[in-house]
Automatic annotation (TrEMBL), chain A:
Pfam families per record: ABC_tran (PF00005)
Protein name as it appears in the record: Iron complex transport system ATP-binding protein
Superkingdom assignment: Bacteria
UniProtKB keywords: ATP-binding, Nucleotide-binding, Translocase, Transport
PROSITE patterns: ABC_TRANSPORTER_1, ABC_TRANSPORTER_2
Source taxonomy: Bacteria, Pseudomonadati, Pseudomonadota, Alphaproteobacteria, Sphingomonadales
GO molecular function, one term: ATP binding
Family: Belongs to the ABC transporter superfamily.
Annotated organism of origin: Sphingomonas xinjiangensis
Function: Part of the ABC transporter complex HmuTUV involved in hemin import. Responsible for energy coupling to the transport system.
UniProtKB/TrEMBL annotation, chain B:
Taxonomic lineage: Bacteria, Pseudomonadati, Pseudomonadota, Alphaproteobacteria, Sphingomonadales
Keywords (A to Z) from UniProt: Cell membrane, Membrane, Transmembrane, Transmembrane helix, Transport
Protein name (database record): Iron complex transport system permease protein
Membrane topology: Multi-pass membrane protein
Coiled coil: none
């Protein structure tokens, strides 16, 4: 099931934030959206999740227009993990994960067998089983991030759209979460994440979309998009490309472009 | 705690307090005088029965709408007063007294309901398309201030002291001398409003994750906002239109129950309705027992009982996780 955006333009207030963005995202891959602050990364992923209406262009899911899909079906197909990882009341972890089942539950019906199984699977996949009976406000930042990911996974979406899932995590948890996302993609899920860190993107992403000022600078395999020239264009930084022990090329920023 | 057990316990409590509310008062009517030729039975049938029904209904309306608003606005300080519905309904009642010299409950109720509905529409219009909670709170606060200012203006131009006394009744809230006529007027609106509010449970749960996450889970924020505005408007508007402003119930009842139900907003709705009914019944029975010729007003009693109680609760639970 492909997720694509065609000629997408989005304004927030009177400011045009995205300008004719076209990209086709493929399932079973991790795609990272990168760009400087204000380049439109969050706006792009929120529009793809159906949370913003484009001025022009459209989002398509498997050749169907996203705005023609019912809200309920969209919620079943697209899992969205917002940047704001707060939970407003001190709700139990299992209850939070169970919220991910809302798009599958009929009104006023209790949780079904399938719901219970999906919740159990999501807790297991994110290694949060031991937290299930705790309350959200008693968790550390890393634990909370995993529980909120479990919430999305409980909905068994085809696509996971995550807005800066690594923000406010320490390096250990960042690597853990990226591994998790890679595992999900290996299982067939389409994963699109907004990232800040070039090195993390090079490690985790199959494809990279570089944005600058709401326009696409480069879109392609990570190795090509994270090269000298595209990064100079998108961020205005010079990088040193260093191979890691697995042969992946990591772009390390070393200074501003002249 | 088991939800069913909690709800059944609260239901039992409401039933007991309902019975107590029929017995208690200047004239004590024990159970063996009920359903008999005892003249005191007349007090129950004609005076205390409608009063107890109204107490139950407005308590449920206030408790439920408090729980819904705290969940919707994700703010433990929210209560029906923040939407300005109570003050605008009271404004309607006061206006009918001052401008039309109304004394009939029907006229006062109708004007109060019309003003409450108008302010509801204004609220929906002010918050329209923003879908966010902040615009909603601001709009409600503006409405509450406007109603309070207009009410104060009407009091200042009230032509005679009788009207002023009557107005004070509405601003302080009282269940004194209510008849079945008022019950028939208010009950359908309160029931409809409460039914609408009970539909919001799942959306409120989803909103604990924030507005974006809730929308991505298929929650239509516009629909939720309509249910909240309409439900609160009908239930609280009708309550205030027969009793005047009774504060505190919508604020403290959800707080009292949250340690028992857990913090999930939908788990709090039904218990808050039952808890609100219990609290108003208890307070209304107590005000009747107060010494002196006239009763303490229900709204005042509620604040007098509620404040210290709530204060102790806050001190005890300062480190409790549910705040």
């Amino acid at each position: 099931m492909d997720l694509s955006v065609t000629d997408l333009s989005v304004s927030l207030g009177h400011r045009r934030v995205l300008d004719s963005v076209t990209a086709e995202f493929r399932p079973a891959r991790v795609t990272a959206i990168l760009g400087a602050n204000g380049s439109g990364k969050s706006t792009l992923i929120r529009t793809m999740a159906g949370l913003l209406d484009p001025d022009r262009g459209h989002v398509r899911l498997d050749r169907r227009y996203l705005n023609r899909i019912s809200v309920r079906e969209r919620a079943q197909l697209l899992g969205y993990l917002p940047q704001d990882a707060s939970v407003h009341w001190n709700v139990g972890v299992r209850e939070v994960v169970a919220l991910g089942r809302l798009p599958h539950r009929s009104p006023f019906a209790g949780p079904s067998q399938a719901d219970a199984m999906a919740i159990g699977a999501a807790l297991a996949a994110t290694n949060t089983n031991h937290l299930a009976e705790r309350d959200m406000h008693a968790l550390s930042g890393g634990e909370r991030a995993r529980v909120l990911l479990a919430r999305v996974l409980a909905g068994e979406p085809q696509w996971l759209l995550a807005d800066e899932p690594l923000a406010s995590l320490d390096p250990v948890h960042q690597l853990g979460l990226l591994d998790q996302l890679r595992t999900l993609a290996a299982g067939g899920m389409g994963v699109v994440i907004v990232l800040h860190d070039l090195i993390q993107a090079a490690r985790a992403a199959d494809d990279v979309l570089l944005l600058k000022g709401g326009r696409v600078v480069a879109f392609g395999p990570a190795r090509e998009a994270l090269a000298h020239q595209p990064l100079r264009d998108a961020f205005g930084v010079e990088v040193m490309v260093v191979p890691d022990e697995q042969g992946r090329l990591l772009p390390v920023p070393i200074g501003l472009s002249a | 705690m088991n939800r069913l057990f909690l709800n059944l316990s609260l239901l039992l409590l409401v039933a007991l307090l309902f019975a107590a509310s029929l017995m208690a008062g200047k004239a004590w009517v024990p159970f063996d005088a009920w359903f008999s030729a005892d003249p005191r039975w007349w007090i129950i049938a004609e005076l205390r029965f409608p009063r107890a029904i109204l107490g139950t209904a407005i308590g449920a309306a206030l408790g439920l709408s408090g729980a819904v608003l705290q969940g919707y606005l994700r703010n433990p300080l929210a209560d029906p007063a923040v939407l300005g519905i109570s003050s605008s309904a009271a404004l309607g009642a006061v206006a009918s007294i001052v401008l039309f010299a109304a004394t009939a409950p029907l006229v006062i109720f109708c004007v109060a309901m019309i003003v409450a509905c108008a302010s509801m529409l204004l609220l929906a219009a002010l918050a329209w398309r923003s879908e966010g909670a902040v615009a909603f709170i601001l709009a409600g606060t503006v409405l509450a201030s406007l109603s309070a200012a207009l009410t104060a203006f009407l009091i200042s131009v009230a032509p005679n002291p009788w009207m002023t006394a009557e107005i004070i009744d509405w601003l302080m809230g009282a269940l004194t001398d209510r008849s079945f006529g008022e019950v028939q007027l208010a009950l359908p609106f309160i029931a409809l409003g409460c039914a609408l509010l009970l539909f919001t449970g799942r959306s409120l749960d989803a909103l604990t994750l924030g507005e974006d996450a809730a929308r991505s889970l298929g929650v239509r924020l516009g629909v939720v906002q309509m249910l909240v505005v309409l439900g609160t408007g009908l239930a609280v508007g009708a309550s205030v239109a027969v009793t005047g402003i009774v504060g505190f119930v919508g604020l403290i009842v959800p707080h009292l129950l949250r340690p028992l139900t857990g913090a999930r907003p939908s788990a709090l709705l039904l218990p808050s309705a039952l808890g609100g009914a219990a609290l108003v019944l208890a307070a209304d029975s107590l005000v009747r027992l107060s010494p002196g010729a006239s009763e303490v007003r229900l709204g005042i009693a509620m604040a007098l009982i509620g404040t210290p109680f709530f204060f102790v609760l806050l001190l005890k639970g300062r480190r409790a996780s549910w705040i």
